[in-house]
Specification:
The chain is of the alpha/beta class. 41% of the residues lie in helices and 13% in strands.
């Protein structure tokens, strides 16, 4: 197949490009950054660029997006306008199928766990609202006859993933305790990026009537946040522990730092860490025959091992433009002295 991938310089897009090329497909990568996996450098909001990249393509895998750390107007523009442009270009190019990589963020802060695909979209911030709006665009094209797979992965981790995970890894490596809000006994589900790549490939080769659907994707094996963080501290070998912070005062302080732009932690993440957050993956198992191989801890520890081997090359990114860069911790860095 000829496969166009938007966001091909990102953590997921670059891995997909390498995997699909190794599988014998012709890959056309689209991204702002001129990485080896990118053949078409530019903005997904540029129709002329998309027409060049998608003409003659069999399938489009739409991975490009903005992160929650982006300015509000840019999140909306990149995710919503960008998705609209990708689907319009896919229509003009006559592609056979689009795989739209969404997020479980569309559920907002669901009151029902495990959350199924039938749960209504309930966005609670700019990012989740933009992701929900992008799904609506995808669904309109599906209703008009274009086979569209909508994939909703939980936060995916693996070698190459940085962002806020870099803070946990850095504190562990320095021999510090690591804080959690409250007891840390909430169950937070994640997803190994290698499993996500396998899931995308599975959907890519599925029959139209199977692929033309919406799927949650996440680890089947996961424990509590305290257990996952403690596994990293144990791997660091300093004998440090996860320590509890009084939830409400800590949440208020972190919220204040976020509003003051002194911390990269954003509101939805803070509230998500206060309650169980996991989805049902039964549909992907039953319809696609897909089951992930790695647990939460497997994925996080593999990421930490990669981080340790590469840490001398890490340079914190002030604006958190990609999940492949460690974010500056802002005021949180000063809190190290207490741990």
């Amino acid at each position: 197949m000829v496969i166009a991938i938007t966001g091909a310089a990102g953590m997921l897009g670059s891995r997909l490009a390498d995997r699909l090329a190794a599988d014998g497909h012709q890959v056309r990568g689209v991204d702002l950054r001129p990485e080896p996996t990118v053949g078409y450098v530019g903005d997904i909001r540029d129709p002329a660029l998309l027409d060049r990249a998608l003409t003659g393509a069999t399938v489009v895998i739409h991975c490009a997006a903005a992160l929650p750390s982006y300015p509000t107007d840019e999140i909306r523009s990149v995710i919503v306008d960008g998705t609209r442009g990708v689907f319009d270009a896919a229509r003009r190019a006559g592609v056979a199928r689009v795989l739209h990589v969404s997020s479980t963020a569309v559920y907002g802060l669901p009151k029902q766990v495990p959350t199924t695909e039938a749960y209504p979209r309930s966005p609670v911030d700019t990012y989740s609202a933009a992701k929900a709006a992008a799904e609506e665009i995808a669904e309109r094209h599906r209703a008009d006859g274009l086979p569209v797979a909508v994939l909703r992965p939980k936060t995916f981790v693996g070698p190459g993933r940085m962002g806020l995970f870099a803070m946990l890894f850095e504190w562990a490596e320095e021999g510090r305790h690591f804080p959690v809000l409250g007891r840390g006994d909430v169950r937070i589900q994640m997803f190994a990026v290698d499993d996500l790549v396998n899931a995308v490939v599975t959907v890519l080769h599925a029959a139209d009537d199977v692929a033309n659907d919406t799927y949650n994707l996440a680890a089947e094996e996961f424990g509590t946040l305290r257990e996952d963080f403690q596994a990293v501290l144990d791997a660091a070998g300093h004998g440090r522990r996860v320590v509890s912070l009084p939830a409400r005062p800590a949440l208020a302080a972190l919220s204040l730092l976020e509003r003051s732009r002194l911390s990269p932690v954003y509101g939805r993440l803070l509230h998500k860490l206060m309650a169980d957050s996991y989805v049902s993956t039964d549909k992907a198992r039953d319809r696609l025959g897909f089951r992930p191989k790695l647990s939460n801890q497997d994925a996080i520890l593999r990421t930490y091992e990669w981080w340790r081997a590469q840490r001398q090359h890490h340079r914190p990114a002030r604006d958190g433009r990609t999940s492949r860069d460690p974010w500056r911790q802002g005021a949180l860095a000063a809190a190290k002295i207490f741990f």
